[in-house]
Specification:
The chain is of the alpha+beta class. It has six helices and eight strands, in the order αβββαβααβαβββα. It has a four-stranded antiparallel beta sheet with strand order 1-2-3-6. A two-stranded antiparallel ribbon has the order 4-5. Helix 2 runs antiparallel to helix 5.
C-alpha cells in the first residue's frame, strides 16, 4: 500500500502482481490465451436447460431469461449463437403466454446443453483477412464479406466504440 496516499486518508488496495491466467466475471483465462466459461456457470445453465426440457412447458418470457444466460456464454464463440433460431421465434410468438415447448426449441436447447462445455475463445487468435458483416430488420436480413489487410482488420477490431452511446444521435448519424 502506498503510505503517502494512506496518510492522506485515501483508501487504497494492495498491489496486485501481474499473472498469466485467472478468473473474472464468470470467465476463466488460461495462461495460453484461452477464455472459457467457469464450470459452475456452465453447470447452472445446463441445469436450467434440463429443468425446462423436463417440464416441457414455458412462456417466451421464461425462455428469454435462460437464453440471456446462454447468449452470454456463447459470446466466447460467437458462431455458436446460430443455433438459437427456434428459441427466438418461440420467445417472439409467445411473449408472456405459457405453452408447450416446440420441437425445434427442445432440439436447440439439447444441442446448446451438449455444446456448453466446449465453448471457449482465443484471445491470441490471429486476425483473418476475410471480414463479414450482417444485419437484420423486420423485413429481412443482409450479409456481405470482403478481404482486408490483416493490419487493418486488427486496427478496426481494437476500436472501442463505447463513445457512440454517449453521443446524442450518434447511431442515427
Amino acid at each position: 500500500m502506498d503510505r503517502s496516499k494512506a496518510t492522506q486518508g485515501l483508501p487504497t488496495h494492495g498491489v496486485m502482481k501481474a499473472a498469466h491466467g485467472g478468473a473474472f466475471v464468470g470467465l476463466d483465462f488460461s495462461a495460453n490465451g484461452i477464455i472459457s466459461i467457469k464450470k459452475k456457470r456452465i453447470w447452472r445453465v445446463r441445469m436450467g436447460i434440463t429443468d425446462l426440457l423436463r417440464r416441457d412447458w414455458g412462456s417466451g418470457k421464461s425462455l428469454e431469461v435462460l437464453i440471456g444466460h446462454i447468449t452470454w456464454i456463447m459470446l466466447a464463440k460467437r458462431p455458436s449463437l446460430s443455433i438459437l433460431d427456434a428459441c427466438h421465434a418461440f420467445m417472439r410468438a409467445l411473449g408472456v403466454r405459457p405453452a408447450a415447448l416446440w420441437q425445434g426449441v427442445r432440439r436447440e436447447l439439447s444441442m446448446v446443453s451438449a455444446l456448453l462445455p466446449l465453448i471457449h475463445g482465443r484471445i491470441a487468435a490471429p486476425c483473418h483477412p476475410l471480414v463479414t458483416a450482417s444485419d437484420s430488420s423486420p423485413i429481412g436480413y443482409g450479409a456481405c464479406h470482403r478481404r482486408i489487410n490483416t493490419e487493418d482488420v486488427r486496427a478496426i477490431g481494437c476500436t472501442v466504440e463505447a463513445w457512440r452511446f454517449r453521443v446524442h444521435d450518434a447511431i442515427r448519424a
